[in-house]
Automatic annotation (TrEMBL):
Belongs to the peptidase S33 family. ABHD4/ABHD5 subfamily. SUPFAM superfamilies: alpha/beta-Hydrolases. PANTHER family: PUMMELIG, ISOFORM A, RE40534P-RELATED. This is 1-acylglycerol-3-phosphate O-acyltransferase ABHD5. The keyword Lipoprotein does not apply.
């Protein structure tokens, strides 16, 4: 991977995006890692409740996203355990190295960057949660580094289905628009059109991706925050986006479907698979159970949720994650579900400390 130093436009967006919602104390920082080629990279990371002795939970976001997408989840998930979320290498505020053009090699480079990040964070074993593309990478990581994963949680994962074995999907309108209008002209990077519009990019995101931006209307009065956040997550050199498109065939199918590789997971790694009842992804949970008869595979359907289940029905989503995580630690009690409106950790002080590389933030509790 060829390293590229990046400067993020308007980094305050990444801070204010979380500061206005989170009730818990948290730290954010760039975690320095060395790539397999020896180049220095940085992975933007948020950490919560790191003093808890319970098994840590690590979150991997989906394609073209960032750690800010977890704002409806972090308070509840971190109530009884350490929680860490990162901007995947090539996305968000993390470095933008050039990945291999080979699909499996690019996947390996991303997975190895997660392992190097783990080493720098001095984590031993943890629960690994991935949404969409993050679910694909989480599974690949668990196959490559099984000794590190105590439980694997896949939230509406992308990349499991084999195009040759499944009927065509019926994606939402915005996907069809991107596929028809933008895809042929963007050298396999549909978001190039958003970047080309410069300051008008957030406007286009609001028009095309209202299905995401509207999910946060209940916690943000300023409706420009989410479109701007998504834009700045994807405004830089799109190396992660390019790597992703080297991993696909057709429109959105994985070249190396995970359904043919999940058999390589160690049986000791239990799995929770979650799908939205209205998702446009193929639900392959039962197929995974069939492939892995000697492994625990718990299937959860989140009612009235689409692909973005962590935001559509975040209370249900959070409850499933909390219960699965408690089971890993041998706990049977269920914590009270915290939301942006009713929850706080009853912080004893209100302060904001910021720097370029690390911020420790405590939000006023209501």
């Amino acid at each position: 991977m060829k390293a590229e130093k990046i400067e993020i436009s308007h980094p305050h967006l990444f801070v204010s995006f979380r500061m206005r919602v989170l009730k818990s104390a948290y730290k954010t920082k760039f975690v320095e890692i060395k790539s397999e080629l020896g180049s220095e990279e940085r992975i933007w990371t948020i950490s919560l409740n790191t003093e808890s002795p319970n098994t840590p939970l690590v979150l991997l976001h989906g394609f073209a996203a960032g750690i800010g997408f977890w704002v409806k989840n972090l308070d509840t998930l971190s109530q009884n355990r350490p929680v860490y979320a990162m901007d995947l290498l090539g996305f968000g505020r993390s470095s933008r190295p050039e990945f291999s053009n080979d699909s499996l090699e690019a996947e390996k480079q991303m997975v190895d960057s997660i392992e190097t990040w783990r080493q720098q964070m001095k984590l031993d074993k943890f629960i690994l949660l991935g949404h969409s593309f993050g679910g694909y990478l989480a599974t690949s990581y668990a196959i490559s580094y099984p000794e590190r994963v105590k439980h694997l949680i896949l939230a509406d994962p992308w990349g499991f289905g084999d195009k040759a074995e499944l009927p065509p999907r019926n994606p939402p309108l915005w996907v069809k628009i991107i596929g028809i209008v933008f895809y042929p002209f963007t050298n396999l990077n549909p978001l190039a059109s958003v970047r080309a519009l410069g300051p008008f990019g957030p406007w286009l995101i609001q028009k095309l991706r209202g299905d995401i931006t509207n999910k946060f209307d209940d916690i943000f009065d300023d409706k420009s925050i989410i479109p701007n956040y998504i834009y700045h997550c994807n405004a830089q050199n799109p190396t992660g986006e390019t790597a992703f498109h080297h991993m696909i065939q057709g429109f959105g199918w994985a070249k190396n479907p995970m359904i043919h590789r999940v058999k390589n997971l160690k049986n000791e790694i239990s799995i929770t698979m979650m799908y939205g009842s209205n998702t446009w992804m193929h639900n392959l949970a039962e197929k995974v159970k069939e492939i892995r008869p000697d492994c625990s595979v718990d299937v959860q359907i989140i009612e009235n949720a689409g692909h973005h289940i962590y935001a559509d029905q975040y209370d249900q989503f959070n409850e499933v994650i909390v219960n699965a995580s408690n089971t890993v630690d041998g706990r049977t009690s269920v914590v009270r579900i915290l939301t942006a409106k009713n929850g706080s950790h009853n912080l004893k002080e209100d302060e904001v400390i910021e720097s370029e590389n690390e911020e420790e933030v405590r939000i006023e509790s209501s």
